[in-house]
Amino acid sequence: MNIIEKIKESRRHKEEEDRVFETIEEIIDEREERGEQHLVDARELPMLKNLFRLRDVRVKDIMIPRVDISAADVNMTPSAFCKYVLKEKFTRYPVYETSLDNVVGVIHVKDILFCLIQKKRCVLKKIMTPQVLFISPAMRALDLLKEMQSNQIQMAIVVDEHGGTDGIVSLEDILEVLVGEIDDEHDDPEELLTRVDAQTIRASAKAKLADFEKIVGEVASKEEREDIETLGGWVVQWVGRVPAKGEVVIHPKTKLKFLILSSTPSHIQRMEITNFLVKEEAADNK
Question: What is the total count of domains within the chain?
């Protein structure tokens, strides 16, 4: 099969896939309009709708940008790497030689752990996985998911038009588009809300709304607190959509200003909040 035939075949499969998604969406919309809820379980519906959104999500929408990448130098000693792991707290790391633009492998914490347990000489270059998947930021997340599944790969390196490292995408990043942010057992609840200064808070979208209100005072209505637990869920509710990365939204009632630091098409990840009066100060001024 020549290149032209391959392009035609790929396009044909894409068109067939789109038609299937569109048909399912139409059926669900029609059933919902008629009040028929038994077609899809209420708990499954949000995930199914996120699956439809995944068609239009590109790698650039969900990747971890270069500035936030935690990576290991191929010449790191086992001791230095272990200290780095304790600091960064991830399980997989891209391994680079000379610079981050030259990723030569991926290492899992268990690889070096097994090496140390067996008391072998640990050299990152020898124990890392040399297979690296390089992808374009314009690649569809759905296509990347298929690629990762077929090649049993958990992490991909996003490269720009010049071949430099632009970011990374893990399997978890794609799954979070479907199911929302996945809590890690090592996530520190205290780090979900961080006071930067007297007038700035950096927050994870999964921080509890009640904990946020302990700092700034009551901002949500009684009805909102009954229906929503997380800060991110509350923001999405009053905005009416998922704000994009870099967007600033202002709560109409309290005038709290939210700068979206990172988000995916289906949920907010991190944000910076300003323009608030801390709870203690609010009490003093009453």
Answer: 3
CATH number, domain of 140, equals 3.10.580.10
| The residue count for the chain | 286
Q: Biggest alpha carbon distance in the chain?
A: 77
- Please give the model's pTM, rounded to 2 decimal places: 0.61
Separation in Å, CA 234 to CA 226, 237, 242, 258, 264: 11, 5, 11, 12, 16
Residue 96's domain comprises 61-179
User: ∠155-158-163 over CA atoms, to 5°?
Assistant: 135
Q: List the structure tokens of 249.
A: 């939204």
In a domain, 55, yes or no: no
Burial level of 232, CB count in 10 A (0-12/13-18/19+)? buried
Closest CA to 172 of 145, 193, 196: 145
pLDDT digits (tens, 9 = 90+) for 37-61: 555 555 566 666 666 677 778 898 8
